[in-house]
């Protein structure tokens, strides 16, 4: 059973669209999601995906899945395919609207020639370092390039020669001719085209001249009929340039750009540079490491796409900078999983308990629900025999105050089974506890209370003779600090890596009913948390379970 989809929340972009539709400024809604294929998507991108695709789902418009593939030095087909898989997994479909900025290279080049012919663009022979040196600062104006007043004819010829490959990389660039005194640095004759003599993953060697993002983005929007170009706030200062380029040219449509705050999530990093560093330095096991904030990492860990969509809806859309607690995301996962995943018992760190008064060789098949509130999910059979495994932490010789599990001479109930008492503690030669021995009360089956005694504690267990060996991987937050590197000298985020973010338990025991579980199947391990069979490493001969999330927030807003 899927969790009910949250109702669309009201936010300023939604209100803008409603006003545009009501006033007739827009007849329909067209958006786009335009990632650069130079890395894997992360949870921050999910916010933009849910907004762009969600808006058109609500209003019946179109959303383009467009790759901004204008920098062949960093882009790769691997990333593109991973991005498509992530968007599809999140539950969105671009239908026939899969496009690339490279689809428009010829048209973009034509627009650039138009700007040159209008006297609004020029070829600059300064080096990149010289251009940066003349750009000025926030308090000082920039300097005009000595090549700024080249004639239209000369600029057009040079630009055509750039396309023909007659110049080396960095020898010439095409710049917009706006002004060098603007308080907005992005308007100080920005570079529109640069030479890159590398093969492009889609166009091969057809081009050695590539447009920059600021030139490409708005024109691609216009060519696709985008009505609302939704960007994160770092592009707010780029909007005047976006508008300037569109104002100079005749285009099929006139899109408008609107900005919203990007997602900042505590206890992780969303910087592409930092994520690449984690992967390349092997601090994690790859882009899909279950500790990573990448969509592929969250998917492998077991996060359901419905929970991520719920999270994006819950945090909302605004212009205010926000720093979201990881607990909000984890709670969305719990809310999604709790009503629909079946229960099972798994012992992570086993301690043997022998029931001395249990009949020798006898196994009782106990009946238990697959879900306590979902009778339609059916029942499961749990075998009980003379020896069971319980969690080491469910026994204490010197229990702290309030401990309600097993103690010497004390009683607990085995979940879905009987009340048992601990009578004897067995140790090895080093003094380590290796076994408990006790008795069960046969009159306490099916939850029946023991006569004259109060037994508060209930613990999970598995039958030793029928237990299934499994590997369990306990994942936790990748960083101990809410803002990794924020309190470290020189902002070294690696110093805040959580040494306990991954713990592998190769000798856990599961109830027999988990045998043959397909990869990607989710469970609640009773009293332990939510888990999923690893989609890469798990197989029927060697089940591997990833912890998705604990049953409750164990961080409590505090650093470990």
Distance between the termini: 36 Å
Structural class estimated from helices and strands? alpha/beta
Main pleated sheet = 7 strands, mixed
Spans where pLDDT lies below 50 across 5 or more residues: 1-5
Q: Structurally, how many domains make up the residues?
A: 3
| CATH architectural type of the largest domain | 3-Layer(aba) Sandwich
Number of strands: 27
Strand content: 15-25%
CATH superfamily of the largest domain: HUPs
Rounded to an integer in angstroms, the radius of gyration calculated over CA atoms is 31 Å
Fraction of residues in H or I helices? 10-25%
The CATH topology label of the largest domain is Rossmann fold
Number of helices: 12
The CATH class assignment of the largest domain is Alpha Beta
Query: Overall mean pLDDT score?
Result: 94
What is the strand arrangement across the widest sheet?
12-25-26-27-23-24-13
* Coarse morphology: elongated
Keywords for this structure?
single chain, 560 residues, alpha/beta, Rossmann fold, Ribosomal Protein L25, Chain P, 3 domains, seven-stranded mixed beta sheet, disordered N terminus
């Amino acid at each position: 059973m899927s969790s009910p989809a949250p109702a669309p929340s009201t936010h300023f972009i939604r209100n803008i669209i409603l006003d545009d539709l009501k006033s007739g400024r827009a007849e329909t809604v067209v958006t786009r999601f335009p990632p650069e294929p130079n890395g894997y998507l992360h949870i921050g991108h999910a916010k933009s995906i849910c907004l762009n695709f969600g808006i058109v789902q609500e209003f019946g418009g179109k959303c383009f899945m467009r790759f901004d593939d204008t920098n062949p030095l960093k882009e790769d087909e691997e990333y593109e395919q991973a991005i498509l898989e992530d968007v599809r997994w999140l539950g969105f479909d671009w239908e026939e609207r899969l496009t690339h900025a490279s689809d428009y290279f010829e048209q973009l080049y034509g627009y650039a020639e138009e700007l040159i012919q209008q006297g609004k663009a020029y070829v600059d022979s300064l080096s990149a370092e010289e251009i940066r040196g003349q750009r000025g600062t926030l308090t000082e104006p920039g300097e005009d390039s000595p090549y700024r007043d080249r004639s239209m004819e000369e600029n057009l010829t040079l630009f055509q020669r750039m396309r023909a490959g007659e110049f080396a990389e960095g020898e010439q660039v095409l710049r917009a001719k706006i002004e060098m005194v603007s308080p907005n640095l992005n308007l100080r004759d920005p570079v529109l085209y640069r030479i890159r003599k590398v093969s492009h993953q889609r166009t091969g060697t057809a081009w050695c001249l590539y447009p920059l993002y600021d030139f490409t983005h708005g024109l691609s929007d216009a060519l696709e009929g985008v009505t609302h170009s939704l960007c994160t706030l770092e592009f707010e200062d780029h909007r005047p340039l976006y508008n300037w380029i569109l104002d100079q040219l005749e285009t099929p449509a006139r899109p408008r750009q609107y900005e919203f705050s990007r997602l900042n999530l505590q206890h992780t990093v969303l910087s592409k540079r930092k994520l690449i560093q984690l992967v390349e330095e092997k601090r994690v096991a790859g882009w899909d490491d279950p500790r990573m904030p990448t969509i592929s990492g969250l998917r492998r860990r077991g996060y359901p796409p419905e929970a991520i969509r719920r999270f994006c809806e819950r945090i909302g859309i605004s212009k205010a900078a926000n720093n979201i607690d990881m607990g909000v995301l984890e709670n969305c996962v719990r809310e999604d999983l709790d009503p629909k995943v079946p229960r099972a018992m798994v012992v992570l760190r086993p301690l043997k308990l022998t029931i001395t008064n249990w009949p020798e060789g006898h196994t009782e098949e106990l009946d238990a629900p697959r879900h306590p509130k979902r009778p339609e999910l059916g029942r499961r059979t749990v075998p009980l025999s003379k020896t069971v495994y319980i969690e080491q932490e469910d026994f204490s010789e010197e229990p702290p105050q309030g401990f309600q599990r097993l103690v010497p001479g004390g009683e607990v109930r085995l979940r879905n089974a009987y009340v048992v008492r601990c009578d004897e503690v067995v140790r090895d030669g080093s003094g380590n506890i290796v076994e408990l021995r006790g008795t069960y009360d046969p009159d306490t089956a099916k939850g029946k209370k023991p006569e004259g005694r109060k037994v508060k504690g209930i613990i999970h267990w598995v039958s030793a003779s029928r237990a299934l060996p499994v590997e369990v991987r306990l994942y936790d937050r990748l960083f101990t600090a809410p803002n990794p590197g924020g309190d470290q000298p020189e902002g070294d985020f690696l110093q805040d890596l959580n040494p306990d973010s991954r713990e592998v338990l190769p000798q856990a025991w599961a109830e027999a009913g988990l045998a043959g579980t397909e990869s990607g199947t989710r469970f609640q391990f009773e009293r332990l948390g939510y888990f999923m069979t690893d989609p890469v490493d798990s197989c029927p001969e060697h089940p591997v379970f990833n912890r998705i999330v604990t049953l409750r927030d164990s961080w409590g807003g505090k650093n470990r």
